């Protein structure tokens, strides 16, 4: 609708009593009359309201309809391609040495971008074309009008409803089933994609290969073969700088975050970097003060998981997985900054405040003959938030 302000037009400023039809007259008015009356009461004169297709069912009209539908079909196809890429395209990192794997992996993000972009663009072009070809190009002139904040009465409500219904009717959208169907399909597929995108990362089969370190039941601390030694290392910022941890490195009351290191990965930059990035591996290594170490209540079955005053707990909050990074040595509590859950380190890190309901899993540790901390084995329960199959 084009509106132009024309203060010089001698039109009613609206709602004057002489303009108002009686209730009977109002009830007898057609929708078109109501639209014009409503516009007039608002100080708007509809100068021109042409039907873009005065002769119905012409070949040109049908062609225009097909073009719009074609864009919506394209949006549907691109949306489906987006979903397919999201689900089936190889998305796991492949090192450059694996030339073919790396090539397909490197196309994953561009594929998502291109298909989603084409889907959104096609939907937008279809919508624009529909507006251009099928919505009447109304020309109206409006006076400056200050209604002084008066509310709507029955007349205003009736005329505005008539105006809206009229706009919907004149758009002819209701009777163009080809356009409705293709638009519904395109928008539906796109909607599915936008919902599926954030959810896709969570889709994992927890029963698939339950002994793999990648399953939900295991972490990067799981030895890859019986007897493999997994050290505790710190992250210096350089994945290739191996800095192992000894008991004397921590003062009483100190906490350090540690990750797994295995000798087989010493000369493998990819593996070293990956070990530091795994979301299930960060562990808080805590050295209790002597007076606190005497007061520890250990969890049943985990009495030997600590090494003297050294305790290692998963850093992944059991509420929704934030890092429980804040260890307060005076209270011996680990605090999760996300929703303020607190875990009592003197009582096997059980939650004592906040929304978390499970204790932080404890990593069994000891000191190897070379003087460095090692993990005795993986966690004995899944780390992080609960899920249906989790038993602890
Ligand atoms: S994620 Fe830790 S309290 Fe919510």
From TrEMBL:
Keywords: 2Fe-2S, Cell membrane, Disulfide bond, Electron transport, Iron, Iron-sulfur, Membrane, Metal-binding, Oxidoreductase, Respiratory chain, Transmembrane, Transmembrane helix, Transport. It is found in: Cell membrane. InterPro entries: QcrA_N, Rieske_2Fe-2S, Rieske_2Fe-2S_sf, Rieske_Fe-S_prot. Belongs to the Rieske iron-sulfur protein family. CDD domains: Rieske. Residues 273-374 form the Rieske domain. It comes from the Bacteria. It is a multi-pass membrane protein. Residues 1-26 are annotated as: Disordered. Residues 7-16 have a biased composition (Polar residues). SUPFAM superfamilies: ISP domain (SSF50022). One of its GO terms (cellular component) is plasma membrane. Signal peptide: none annotated. Iron-sulfur subunit of the cytochrome bc1 complex, an essential component of the respiratory electron transport chain required for ATP synthesis. The bc1 complex catalyzes the oxidation of menaquinol and the reduction of cytochrome c in the respiratory chain. The bc1 complex operates through a Q-cycle mechanism that couples electron transfer to generation of the proton gradient that drives ATP synthesis. One of its GO terms (molecular function) is oxidoreductase activity, acting on paired donors, with incorporation or reduction of molecular oxygen. The lineage of its organism: Bacteria, Bacillati, Actinomycetota, Actinomycetes, Pseudonocardiales. Its main location: membrane. This is Cytochrome bc1 complex Rieske iron-sulfur subunit. The chain crosses the membrane at residues 68-89, 109-130, 183-203.
């Amino acid at each position: 609708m084009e509106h132009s302000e024309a203060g010089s037009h001698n039109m009613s400023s609206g709602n004057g009593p002489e303009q108002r039809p009686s209730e009977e007259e109002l009830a007898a008015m057609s929708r078109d009359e109501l639209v014009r009356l409503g516009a007039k009461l608002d100080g708007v004169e509809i100068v021109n309201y042409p039907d873009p297709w005065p002769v119905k069912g012409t070949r040109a009209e049908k062609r225009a309809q097909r073009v719009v539908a074609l864009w919506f079909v394209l949006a549907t196809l691109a949306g489906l391609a987006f979903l397919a890429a999201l689900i089936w395209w190889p998305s796991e990192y492949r090192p450059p040495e694996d030339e073919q794997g790396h090539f397909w992996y490197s196309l994953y993000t561009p594929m998502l971008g291109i298909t989603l972009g084409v889907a959104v663009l096609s939907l937008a072009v279809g919508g624009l074309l529909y507006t251009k070809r099928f919505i009447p190009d109304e020309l109206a002139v409006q006076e400056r009008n200050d209604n002084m904040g008066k509310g709507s009465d029955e007349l205003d409500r009736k005329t505005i409803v008539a105006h809206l219904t009229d706009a919907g009717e004149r758009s002819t959208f209701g009777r163009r089933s080809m356009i409705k169907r293709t638009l519904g399909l395109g928008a539906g597929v796109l909607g599915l994609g936008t919902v599926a995108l954030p959810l896709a990362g969570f889709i994992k089969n927890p029963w698939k290969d339950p002994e793999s370190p990648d399953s939900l039941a295991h972490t990067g601390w799981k030895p890859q073969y019986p007897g493999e030694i997994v050290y505790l290392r710190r992250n210096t910022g350089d994945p290739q700088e191996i800095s192992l941890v000894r008991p004397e490195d921590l003062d009483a009351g100190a906490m350090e975050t540690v990750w797994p290191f295995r000798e087989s990965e010493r000369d493998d930059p990819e593996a070293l970097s990956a070990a530091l990035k795994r979301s299930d591996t960060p562990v808080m290594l805590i050295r209790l003060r002597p007076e606190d170490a005497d007061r520890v209540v250990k969890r049943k079955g985990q009495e030997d998981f600590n090494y003297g005053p050294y305790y290692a707990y998963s850093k992944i909050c059991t509420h929704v997985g934030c890092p429980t990074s804040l260890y307060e040595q005076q209270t011996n509590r680990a605090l999760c900054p996300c929703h303020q859950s607190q875990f009592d380190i003197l009582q096997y890190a059980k939650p004592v405040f906040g929304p978390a309901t499970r204790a932080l899993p404890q990593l069994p540790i000891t000191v190897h003959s070379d003087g460095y901390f090692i993990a005795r084995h993986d966690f004995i329960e899944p780390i992080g938030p609960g899920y249906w199959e989790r038993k602890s």
